[in-house]
Structures are given as structure tokens and as C-alpha cells.
Amino acid sequence: MKIIADSITLEELAKLAEARFGNMVKAVVDVDRETMAVDAELHADEEAALLETGAKQESLWGINLYPEIPEEEWVEFDSMINLRPGQGNRTRGVDDPDIRRRIIDIVKARIKR
Fold first, then answer.
1. pTM of the predicted model as reported, rounded to 2 decimal places
2. Cα dihedral 97/90/71/111 (nearest 10)
3. Are strands 8-9 and 111-112 parallel, antiparallel or unpaired?
4. SS (H, E, C) 67-97
5. How many CA atoms lie within 13 A of 73 on its CB side?
6. Where are the alpha helices (DSSP H) in the chain?
């Protein structure tokens, strides 16, 4: 697992995908600190790692990245850690369009294509 505060290349991400799931990398994005954890078997493991570094749980969102898919389609909002009825998110996706936009902006800033 890697915590990305600066950046990672798309090629590096593709290698991580190939080694674990084949075509996908799980990631958790911290929308407050604009960091992300990648390359764990479970989003919950990435969430725990970010929490250990001082992240707030309500700022962490799970996504899947598909390095081989075009940029406009490669982020999938689907994770059990996103189920937060108390926070207004009742699905495994990210229901708030502003949070989805922030996540995409952070992904674009951290992963160099």
C-alpha cells in the first residue's frame, strides 16, 4: 500500500493494478488533506492507514481506478466505506456531486498521465 501526498505516474499505477487485481486499483481519497492511499486488497485497509496518519473518517472516500480506461471514465465510485447514512450518503457510491468533483480533482493532481 502507498500513501500518495505528491504524485504517482499512470504507469506505476498500472503496474500496481496488474500485480493485485489485474486491471484495477482500489484507492481511498482524503478530500480534506488532498492525499490518497492506493494498492490494498480492501478499501478499509487504506482507510485505516489514512486514519493512522491523522485523517478524519468523514473525509475519506473509497474509489476504484482503472488505469487502462480513458480518463473521463476510469474512476469508479464504489466502496463499502462510502455507506454513511449519518452523513447523508446512503449508497456505496458518492452521492454528493461536489465531493465527487473534489475526488476527481485530487486524483488528477496525484496521478500523472
1. 0.96
2. 90
3. parallel
4. CCCCCCCCEECCCHHHCEHHHCECCCCCCCH
5. 3
6. 10-20, 43-52, 97-110
Per-residue pLDDT at 113 exceeds 90: no
The pLDDT-based confidence of 67 (bands split at 50, 70, 90) is very high
Domain ranges of the chain: 2-112
Q: What is the pLDDT of residues 25-40, one digit of tens each?
A: 999 999 999 999 999 9
Spatial separation of the C-alpha atoms in residues 25 and 16, rounded to whole Å: 7
CA torsion, ordered 67, 70, 75, 78, to nearest 10 deg: -90
